Amino acid sequence: MRESNVEPGTLQLILDQLEELVVTLIEEIRERPSVALAVLAAVMGAVVGSALAARGGGRRRVVPPARVARGASRVGAASELMGLGVRLMQNPIVRGFVLASVQRQFRRRLRV
């Protein structure tokens, strides 16, 4: 079929590393069985949760209320404006103008 480009030394190194990993896992399980059980419980919970989520089957689409939809569009618009503001602040001329304007505002407020 296909020729393997892996040298025997590389393959042996990979097998040695896998063997070390298995030995380390076994030692850790022997030293700390409660931690091993907690990790196993977490993995099992993830598997069961994924299985339950996947079998959702007849999900119905819920149309969000108009107020929520408007709020989401406002958040989208705000994020676009933030992106534009960041790009504008990369320009040294705009950055200098904004800094001068902010300094002027602080001077006015501190004098009064």
What topology does this entry show?
Blueprint: H1 8-31, H2 33-54, H3 66-89, H4 92-111
Question: What does this protein structure show overall?
Answer:
It is a single chain. The mean pLDDT is 81. It contains four helices and no strands. It has 112 residues and is mostly helical. The chain has helices spanning 8-31, 33-54, 66-89, 92-111.
Largest sheet: none
| Strand content bin | under 5%
Beginning-to-end CA distance, first to last residue: 85 Å
Count of β-strands: 0
| Shape, principal axes of CA atoms | extended
**SSE class:** mainly alpha
Low-confidence stretches: none
Number of helices: 4
Chain-averaged pLDDT: 81
What is the ordering of alpha helices and beta strands?
Answer: HHHH
The percent of residues in helical segments reads: over 70%
Give the C-alpha Rg: 30 Å
Nutshell version of this structure?
The protein is mainly α and 112 residues long. The protein contains 4 helices and no strands. The chain has helices spanning 8-31, 33-54, 66-89, 92-111.
Describe this protein with a few key phrases:
single chain, 112 residues, mainly alpha
